# Entry
Amino acid sequence: MTTPCDYGSRHPPVTEFTDRNIQDWAVESGNEILINRVIEDLLPQAVTLVMLQSEIAKDPTMIQLKEDIVTNKYCRNSLSQFKKVFAELSFINSIIVRGEQVIIPKSMEADIIGIAHEGHAGTDKTLNLLRQTCWFPAMAQKVKLFVQSCLPCNAAIPNVTPQPLQPNLLPDRPWQCLHADFKGPIGSKYYLHVIIDQYSKYPEVDIVKSTSFAALEPCLDRIIASHGIPERISTDNGSPYFGHEMAEYTKRNGIKHDPVTPEDPQSNGFAESFVKLLCKFLHTKIIEGQDPKKELQNYLLLYRATPHSSTGKSPAEMLNGHKIKTKLPQVFSSAESQEKQKIRQYHNEKKLQQKTYFDRRRNAKNTPVNHGDKVLIRQKKTTVNSPFDPKPYKVIKVVGNRVTAERGESKRTRDKNYIKVLKPRPEELIPSWENGNNAQRTNYNDLDIEGINIYKEILPQDIEEVEEQPNSLFAIDEEEENRMNEMFQNIYSINNTHDIPSQCSTVTESPSKRVLRALRSHNKNLTWNKNMNSENVIIEQSNDNADK
# Structure
């Protein structure tokens, strides 16, 4: 007599599903099951009363506290952290409670905080959640430090404490330090190249057709011929400033090229500020129906003759020592030589006022960054990328607000406003699943793998050739076989025991019959057949037990 179970054991259900079946029944592939298993293993475990009782029984502090509670004695001096709440404590069911709050032993504090912060809430919300059911000494301070040192939270929060402004004080003399930048393209036709003197605020603007160094070099030659060779020139890291030709040009003329901090336009503020004025000039001339290229020199004349807010003198007077004539009527007088010292003092006072205003308005604070600190670097925020790169860098150099950090072979230089310092987390606050003490991992060596299916995409002509000559597929000499064995182990990491992380592994290398021959050399029971539903060749392991 047979039962319905007999039919089911001898006629297993079909394991191939159509696209409609996969969508309707939510069928998961082997890889999806594996990923879900790994994610579940990494999640923190719940803390049960049994676990709490076990830890209390092993904790010396909890044992002493229990004795004081049971014997109705005063709290001993060694338990000073519990004195303020000792009158509220009681011992029930082998655990110590304070009203409705469970007293957590020190060995479980990090795990308890980690579970409460599992949703990555802020300090207040995490602390409020803990206070519903738990209590331990200095809980608020420990929760705050835990949240501040949380790597995902730091990477996901875009805010950074603004750094105090570092003003550029007046150089020793005119045309000593220059700043350069490009503006454009203007109407997809030309670019404006700007060079401005840090001392006098005197601008030079040239119209170029491209940002290549071949178009820029004549402009630099003209400016140097007019005002002399500067000691230093600051630029951004774009083309053509960061090229070999620019490096050769500055070296040939004895100029120190000083690229500003990458991705920090504020570092090149002199040029950037003037570029903004040029933008307004371009818009106004286009609105008036005039050609900006023809009106550019007239605009520069007026700008050079207008006193600058930082110096109180016009750029032309600061650079050349005298005022320049404009269309306005004016009377000239010779400037006194001792005015330079007054100008310097006036300039520095203005800059310090700007710093005070800037720092007060933006609530700027100096964030100490030391050699060896771990920092997160700002990246472009998208729907999938957090504001900060979650992989920390290690600081190797700090100069003012410029920080250089490395991660492996990668080096990055950023302003302090574009980095976030990671606070080190004390060892007692490191959850068990982060230090790996209690982390569970699937041991694939213990899995009972009945068979190995390796799906490999292969070109149709290769399939036909395999079908026509199945026996010659594995006809290789011993030297070729050994070489392919070594190659196969290096690429696919499958050893002689077939110790693989899943019963179904997708091979991503290019199709080759040599891979099939290497498979055959590993296990003589492997056979091949063609999957009729897709352009695949399936390598299957024969099994002597037909029931399996």
User: Anything to note?
Assistant: Residues 33-43, 438-476, 491-514, 526-548 have pLDDT under 50 and may be disordered. The longest helix spans residues 339-361. The first strand starts at residue 89 and ends at 92. Residues 248 and 324 are 35 Å apart (CA to CA).
